[in-house]
Structure formats: structure tokens, C-alpha cells
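Reopening this one. Same input as before:
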Amino acid sequence: MSGTILSSLVVLDAAGPIGGGVVAAAVAARRPVVAVDSDPAALRVLAATYPQAALTLLQGCARDEVTAAELSAALRSLDLPLGGVIAAVDGELLRGRLLDLSVDASCHRFVAALAPQLAAARHLLPVLADGGRGAGYVLIGGPGGVHPWAGYGHASVTEAALRMLARVLHGEARPLGVRAQLLSLDTPAWGVHAGLPRADWPSALDVGRHALDLFGPGAPTDAIVEFSTTRAVAVRHDISCCGSDRRDARALPDTVSKSSHHEVSP
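Same output, byte for byte:
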């Protein structure tokens, strides 16, 4: 009897700081991954990092309507069962005061930060819906969306908008049979914020583990899931082969799937 085929998890910006943590957590959990990134060299590094993982590499992005449509078509052409998308979109950390930039400059920042999130959701939610697997779609947001982050006015406005975007997508995705959610961090994460890591900030791997928790049994179903309210650290450490960084997943090749799919599509 053949084993159960696990559905693949699509990770956007898979070679970025947060995306890398999501991929590491998924590999450690023996979850097949479709790693999407615009940088083919970075995708090849991922393949070399996890040589025994069930990892499909796909060059692409969803920065606008055109590229998101191309990504949608590429995912359909893979003919893989897809169980979800984690939009680990790494945007620029928008430092600065609202009063210091022109209206046009500020609006350009807002659009540049939010357009990839909306474009990806518009084109990838239907892909998940067509799979008929009760899939999930998880956006990852940062601090400033609830209380203003001093010195990061544009980031605060963008994160507040992302929270509302997630609420609207949550309602619009429900008739499609897809659960759309935002995993909202209340602090920066290691690898994203400039400067030295701090003990009270999560690592990218921590973020990846929390994001994967949202696809498990008993996961929260709310449109907005606060990072601090997801499952306890002790539960997350049940992913036994994960340590504090990606090197732990590389050091334990026997813990990941023996079936590898390393493809970089143009």
C-alpha cells in the first residue's frame, strides 16, 4: 500500500530572512515545500542546504498583477497537491516620520509594501481553492499595526493596512474553502531588523514554526493571530530536529523526506 501523499506548502520569498526560517521549519517537520523566490542563485543555495528534502524550487514572485499571474500559472503547471501558502514577503523596514516625506513619496511606500501581498492573494487563493483540500493562506506581519512604532510611521500605517487586508481576505476566502490569516509579530525578528539580535525577539525559525502551527490540528481560526498567543514554546519544540537555526536542520538529514524534487523553473 502506498503511503499518504502530503500536500506541499508554498513559501513566498523563500530565500529571504523570514522565508528561510519557514523553509527550515517545514523541512524539519517533513513537509514538502515549493520554495518560490525571484533569485535563482538563492534557490540553488536552498537546494544545496537541504539536499534530501522534498523541496521543489520555483523562480518567481508576486510583486504585481503580471508576476502574480505568472506565478499562479507556474504553480498550476507543477501539478502538485498544494496544502497552503505562507507569504513571507520581505519588505523594506520603513523607517522615518510621516511628516518628513511628501504625500507622493509616502503613498509610493505604502503601495510598494502592500501591492505584493494583495497581488499574491488575488492570484494564489484561487489556486488553493481549486485544489479542494481545505488549504490555508498565511500572511506574516510585523510590529506597529496596533500601536504606532515611534520612528517608523510608514511601517506602522502599512502594518495596520495589512491587518485589515487580512480580515477582508479572511471573509472573502471562506466561500472558496480556504482559510486566510495573518500571523502578526509584535516585535521585529532576527535577520530582518538591523543591529544585533535581542533575547525578546523571535528568530526567523521561531516565526516559521508558528506559521506552520496554523496548519495543524486545533490551530486558531481567527483572521488575525498574534504571535504571542500561538502555541507555547514547549509545544513548538516538539519538532524535535529543529534547533536554534537552520544548521540544525542540515545536520540531521535523516529527519527529512528521502524524496527530493529540485527544480528551478524559469
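So the earlier flakiness isn't reproducible anymore. For the record, The chain has one domain: 8-265.
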